[in-house]
């Protein structure tokens, strides 16, 4: 019995030692295997300095982006059970600080139909905005916010008169709600005309290939020096997303319209006080074998009335006695109401314009001083 117990004890001891050795070996193998399979990251190659173009882009964004704002338009919703009224987000867009008085420029279509708007700065401070005024025909609107401390600086203003196709541009905005997004590109064309949301033509636009998407509307278009040269307004796209064709309201238009909105609450559209009906003009000028726009009406006390411009007359039998036919404004040919508006679009109230007319088959030239028409 004693030998049997000792054998069992000895066997148990040896089995314990063998198990311990096996465990130790497995741990050692496992550790070595893990060490052998540990992935080694590649070394990072040092890069040289940024290119001059990259440095310019980085510096421009750093300097200008604090002046770009995120606009959330609001709508009012009434709870049918409690009759409580609350404001809810309606849409988003972009804008930028125009001056040190807190005026914010954006697109008219960004705020059209909204009951209110909130403006968020780059430092995430938010402010309620009041509408100062708008110019739907130029797709521009001005809001105002009160920033009590450390307001962002307004963007430096450039000119759009000397822009060239191929010139480098930068666009900053909030596409799809991603705030302060930078895209770059070139000017693809100038002096484009597209139809606005109301069907009216919007003229003298800058065409760009920088990516413009929903939410970019109202953001600034900059030249390589970081100056404002336009306000991003629209895209041409079958899908609704950027397709490489974007449009911006030129800075010269902005600089003409925005001060008027700030001063008067609306844009006084320059006018000479004539009326043209395209379908009538086309028939009469075709019958007369002449080019131009038949004037069918003259507004009372307008520059045209004071200059003695003669409109067409309609007789009792329905026939039309032609009056003056407007052929050119400051040398630019016109033949429709849209072309007349286009020729006057870059003028200001008080500017003088030269009209080339045809009266009873004879050329006539008149010089008028433009008045303002509020819309």
UniProtKB/TrEMBL annotation:
Transmembrane segments: none annotated. Residues 261-361 form the PDZ domain. Keywords: Hydrolase, Protease, Serine protease. PROSITE patterns: PDZ. Gene3D superfamilies: 2.30.42.10, Trypsin-like serine proteases (2.40.10.10). One of its GO terms (biological process) is proteolysis. Belongs to the peptidase S1C family. This is Trypsin-like peptidase domain-containing protein.
